[in-house]
Write a structure and sequence with these properties.
By secondary structure, this protein is mainly beta. Helix content is 2%, strand content 44%. Strand 45 (514-519) and strand 46 form a beta hairpin.
């Protein structure tokens, strides 16, 4: 069921705010910070005898709104709005109504929150005070835009159709006509099944593929880059909505290569959607009032119907890491092409045989490793490693140990806790077959298969990494929406973009087309115009949703300083900043 962290923006383009002290709430926030973040979650049902079908529907329709202090927004019998209690009670139960309003700028979609106990709608006065006194949403005072924040550790997600019970994926057209999105995958496997969203003024969203292409209402995917303007709005890379709610969008057209050319900082109208909540799931509506859904025999994700049914409902699902292991001793990828035995003997990577899913166990800091068809790594006869178990609980548990040369070794245990007396290293025989032994572990280079781009946010912070200003190279870590970072795997000796003999990677910002580099001694910037001028990195996977970024040639990490600036500093691995991806 849908549960997300959001910012709520009223008709005056101010954010609903929960102050840190005194449990005070108001609607005076100018930008999205921690105090403006709220979690909308399902409201649990009380224990009573009801029709199970209708009861499930009621639970999906009722929500609670929780502040960053873990206190719930509630309304008392006198209409006073509070946010003091950490316990759910009837006054904290709301329903969501989707409203449309036609203005000079066209149709606008809003959310309205009705308190179930009192029967009135949540609103804000002109001075920013919160109230609940309107029986119906009469003006923008009771209407809210939703600023959806990517979930922690899940900025890239799988998009599932509720009606078709299939996952969306981006597909290259055979006639060379570009890309389109189809809803026909039975599982979220590969980078083509991952998506992300970006928020724009007025509660509008763009859906992007993992390769940073924008989905249009016709189902095609296009390139679009925000233009460089020295007078770009915003401070420190954070977008500021204007006070009167007026925005100017210059219409643009695609050139012959399908690349959008536009002087506007907002993507073309055909790539923008508003988000609606329906019974625990979401729907995306375009500017013409039509909803995204799978259409036709090819199940192309495009807008068609003006009404919401199960076909128009979508859900966001987390997508675990999928990687390929390249053994350092023979430059071959681990594969199951030969059967159940795991061997490092393939020079090419496929999604069927050489790609594995890493499923993380938070309590023990271990991993289960799974194939595409649902089988897990486990020791077999003569200590050989095989894919012989379909149960995650009975499979082997592994830890990733990072080495100084940028490779990682796998430590195995037959229980979820790694103990010295039963742990063994993953090693290899001369034939390339993987086995378990107490000595000589194999060093593996990890190739991220379903993360061709990253949205980075410090695990201890709330802002995303992005360009401080469009077109410039300075990096900032206070962005409310991420600027994606593309990964290019290279060989450090040749600087060639290769996957067969890589030992490091380059990080590239699609928003300005430049690579990350180190300037002024220890400052990070995206200003290198070519791979030969770029900094080479090692991505150290630390958990199911965090990684550390290390320089290839030194024990220096890409860190967030106490002054909230980005720098490259020498430190111990356990002291490095962890970045959520």
């Amino acid at each position: 069921m849908w549960s997300q962290t959001v910012g709520l923006v009223n008709g005056q383009y101010k954010y609903l705010t929960a102050e840190t002290f005194g449990y005070k709430i108001n609607c005076n926030g100018a930008t999205m910070k921690k105090k403006q973040q709220w979690t909308i979650e399902p409201f649990p049902l009380e224990s009573r005898e009801v029709d199970p079908v209708n009861d499930e529907f009621v639970e999906q329709e009722h929500v609670a709104i929780k502040s960053h202090l873990d206190c719930y927004l509630a309304v008392d019998s006198f209409g006073n709005v509070t946010c003091e209690s950490r316990e759910l009670h009837p006054g904290a139960r709301f329903t969501i109504t989707i409203c449309s309003m036609t203005t000079g700028d066209g149709e606008q979609i809003y959310w309205a929150f009705r308190n179930v106990e009192r029967g009135y709608f949540l609103g804000a006065s002109s001075d920013g005070m919160i109230n609940c006194i309107a029986k119906i949403p009469q003006s923008k005072a009771e209407l809210w835009h939703l600023h959806l924040i990517p979930a922690r550790g899940s900025t890239m997600f799988a998009l599932k159709s509720i009606g078709r019970k299939r996952y969306a994926r981006s597909v290259r057209l055979s006639d060379g006509g570009g890309e389109q999105v189809q809803v026909d995958s039975t599982s979220p496997w590969g980078a083509e099944t991952l998506f992300q969203f970006k928020y724009y003024e007025g509660g509008r969203y763009a859906l992007l593929t993992s390769s940073c292409k924008y989905l249009t209402s016709e189902g095609t995917c296009i390139d679009w880059t925000p233009p460089f303007s020295p007078s770009s709005p915003g401070k420190n890379g954070v977008h500021h909505a204007n006070g009167n709610g007026v925005s100017i969008t210059i219409k643009s057209a695609a050139n012959g290569n399908g690349v959008i050319s536009s002087p506007s900082p907002i993507p073309p109208p055909e790539t923008l959607f508003t988000l609606e909540y329906h019974g625990g799931d979401v729907a995306f509506r375009d500017s013409q009032g039509r909803y995204l859904a799978a259409a036709g025999r090819a199940a192309v994700l495009r807008t068609r119907s003006t009404h919401v049914s199960r076909d128009e409902l979508l859900s966001f699902e987390p997508a675990p890491l999928q990687v390929a292991f390249r053994a350092d001793f023979n430059n071959r990828y681990v594969s199951i092409k030969q059967g159940v035995d795991l061997s490092a003997n393939q020079s090419d990577v496929t999604s069927e045989h050489e790609t594995f899913q890493l499923e993380y166990n938070i309590k023990s800091d271990t991993w289960n490793i799974r194939t595409k068809d649902g089988q897990y790594w486990n020791p077999g006869a003569a200590s050989a490693i095989q894919v012989s178990s379909r149960s995650r609980e009975s499979s082997g548990f592994f830890k990733l140990k990072w080495n100084e040369d940028g490779t990682c070794s796998l430590l195995y245990s037959d229980s979820s806790g790694i103990e010295d007396d039963n742990s063994r290293w993953v090693c290899a025989r001369k034939s390339g077959q993987l086995c378990l032994s107490q000595t000589d572990p194999v060093g593996f280079h990890l190739l991220l298969r379903n993360r061709t781009s990253l949205n980075l946010r410090p695990a201890s912070g709330s802002g995303f990494i992005g360009l401080k200003q469009p077109g410039l190279g300075k990096l900032d870590v206070s962005k409310t929406s991420p600027d994606s970072v593309l990964i290019e795997y290279v060989n450090s000796e040749t600087d060639e973009d290769v996957a067969g003999s890589f030992n490091c990677c380059l990080l590239k910002m699609p928003s300005n087309g430049k690579y990350w580099s180190v300037v002024d001694g220890n400052q990070a910037a995206a200003d290198a115009s070519s791979p030969s001028c770029a900094q080479q990195f090692i991505l150290e996977i630390r958990s199911g949703f965090t990684l550390a970024i290390r320089l290839l040639e030194s024990p220096s990490y890409f860190n967030l300083t106490k002054q909230s600036t980005l720098s490259v500093t020498k430190c111990q691995p356990n002291e490095a900043t962890l970045w959520e991806f």
